[in-house]
Amino acid sequence: MAAAPEPGEPAKGKTFKLLGILDVENIPCARDSVLYGSLGSVVAGLGHFLLTSRIRRSCDVGVGGFILVTLGCWFHCRYNYAKLRIQERMAREGIKNKILYESTHLDPQRKPANGNGGSGVTSSTENPATTH
Q1: H helices within the chain, ranges in order?
Q2: What are residue 104's phi and psi, to 5 degrees?
Q3: SS3 18
Q4: Tell me: the pLDDT tens digits for 72-120?
Q5: Backbone angle region of 117, left / alpha / beta, with phi > 0 → left and psi within -120 to 50 → alpha
Q6: pLDDT in tens, 28-68
Q7: Which residues contact 118 (CB under 8 A, 6 or more apart)?
Q8: Among 8, 20, 79, 128, which residue's beta carbon has the most beta carbons within 10 A?
Q9: By C-alpha distance, which of 38, 48, 73 is closest to 56?
């Protein structure tokens, strides 16, 4: 028996494509947007039908509800996804810089050894006998 793939990993088998173009399994936010859009369509169409009893107009409202809710969820999810990617990239760069600059003179967390900036060289105006 083969193990089931994780939700974030692409499946090796046949994927489900909506209308032949939208791969809802591998595109982030596509699945949730379509599901919320279909729920919005049912709620909008059924609510309009219960209020007015007009079948054709209720179907139109249902299609409009699907489009509006799907696009609203899509843009909201993609915005949050992009924000998360930016934060992850910043964290990766910070970790890389931490590893790169650790224990060097460029490390911002490292304190200088003496009071003159850590150069170890005394200037001509300082008295070497009084400095340490």
Answers
A1: 30-52, 55-101, 128-131
A2: -115, 175
A3: strand
A4: 999 999 999 999 999 999 999 988 888 887 777 777 777 766 655 555 5
A5: left
A6: 888 888 889 999 999 999 999 999 989 999 999 999 999 99
A7: 105, 112
A8: 79
A9: 48
